[in-house]
Design brief:
The chain is α+β, with helices and mostly antiparallel strands. Strands 2-3-1-4-5 form a 5-stranded mixed sheet. It has a two-stranded antiparallel ribbon with strand order 6-7. A hairpin with a 5-residue loop joins β6 and β7.
């Protein structure tokens, strides 16, 4: 069924074994790199191979292979040269670098030289704006290039050389790179190397050190806490904050006398007798009990209560809530919100596995019966019956 070697099949089994038995489809991405490592691109045979070993159909594999640009769908050269032409690199000369290489090599975007050595492409972003303009060769960086240095790199590659990238290990071919992307170590000498950050990347750190800018309380030697430790510290901090809160003021012992001598509810403004200070609540006009603001609630709960709180439990002027009325100023009966929600749920049964919501088999059967009979309950003809059934 495929042209792949026994070594590739053995590696495919090794890749699949990295994943749980019921999650073998997760191995598709490294498997696509594996077939690209043998053929230099993901061919129709490679798609069929991945589908075969994973028990998928070719359409499922092809959908993934065509989504990611690192999977090539036609033969690609030994060295994929990508030039960034996005905003930052373009401003710094990236487009000029690409145009020069295109003219020098005689190829356009996603095209390969006649000797099969170089495939040229322009890239939207290579994530190295501080080194722009940049280009990569098989995803290894050449920083701060200009047209002449870029031509020098491709000429050396075509002559059989391996120019050293600005950062990282020495170059390898696209097939050798695909083996690494499939999850297998490259045993070649010099295939692994350390690459430290350059001055453009460290510029922000240098400025922060120069001007004494740092995060308050930051200690670089402090180890990162586990989630359990962080949760425990947060709980302790919250408990201390609650303990430090002042006790609520005691309510007034005697009721406030209204202007007519009758007792007025505590906190009701405007009815205090002459010379009697109004209670503290009168300053805001609040008649609500002392309740915690809803900020501790999740945003979804707070939004739902703000839009339609239950009249039996909502506090009229609690922060963030507003009891709706029926237009006459009367609040709805307690439980109206829950009753409306329950009625909506009952009227809209959830969709099953085999049909969409609202697709009732009984209505379909009735329509078919009426169509076959050639008439409906009102005596309509066959054409009318079909139309009536469709409307129903």
């Amino acid at each position: 069924m495929s042209v792949f070697t026994d070594e590739t099949r053995e590696r495919a089994r090794e890749i699949i074994a990295r994943y749980p038995a019921d999650r073998s489809r997760s191995a598709l991405l490294p498997l696509l790199h594996l077939v690209q490592a043998e053929e230099g691109y993901v061919s129709p045979a490679g798609v069929a191979f991945c589908a075969e070993v994973l028990g998928l159909n070719k359409a499922q594999v092809g959908a993934v292979a065509t989504f990611y640009t690192m999977y090539k769908r036609k033969p690609t050269g030994d060295f994929l040269v990508s030039v960034c032409t996005n905003t930052m690199c373009n401003v710094l000369g990236g487009q000029e670098v690409y145009d020069t290489l295109s003219e020098h090599l005689g190829v356009g975007h996603d095209e390969t030289t006649a000797d099969g050595t170089i495939t040229l492409e322009h890239a939207e972003c290579l994530a190295a704006c501080d080194y722009g303009p940049v280009m990569t060769v098989n995803y290894d960086f050449f920083d701060g290039v200009d047209p002449s240095t870029a031509v020098g790199v491709v000429d050396e590659l075509r002559a059989g050389g391996r120019p050293m990238p600005t950062r990282g290990a020495r170059l390898c071919t696209l097939k050798e790179m695909a083996v690494q992307l499939a999850g297998f170590a490259d045993e070649r000498e010099g295939a692994v190397a350390d690459g430290g950050p350059g001055e453009p990347t460290l510029r922000g750190l240098r400025l922060a050190q120069q001007h004494g800018v740092s995060v308050p309380g930051f200690d670089p030697n402090t180890p990162i806490r586990s989630k359990a430790e962080a949760d425990r510290a947060a709980a302790e901090a919250k408990a201390k904050a609650e303990a430090a809160k002042p006790a609520p003021a005691e309510a007034a012992a005697a009721p406030v006398k209204g202007g007519d001598g009758a007792s007025a509810p505590t906190g009701t403004p405007g009815n205090a007798g002459a010379g009697e200070p109004a209670p503290a609540a009168a300053a805001t006009g609040s008649t609500a009990p002392d309740v915690k603001a809803p900020d501790d609630k999740s945003p979804q709960v707070r939004t739902a209560e703000t839009r339609q709180p239950d009249a039996g439990t909502a506090v009229p002027d609690a922060p963030g809530t507003k009891v709706p009325t029926d237009g006459t100023g009367t609040a709805p009966e307690a439980g109206d919100a829950r009753s409306a929600e329950a009625a909506g749920v009952a009227a809209n049964a959830p969709a099953g596995d085999g049909k969409p919501a609202g697709d009732e088999a009984g209505a379909q059967e009735r329509n078919l019966t009426e169509a076959k009979a050639g008439t409906d309950a009102d005596g309509a003809g066959p054409a009318d019956a079909n139309e009536t059934g469709a409307q129903k």
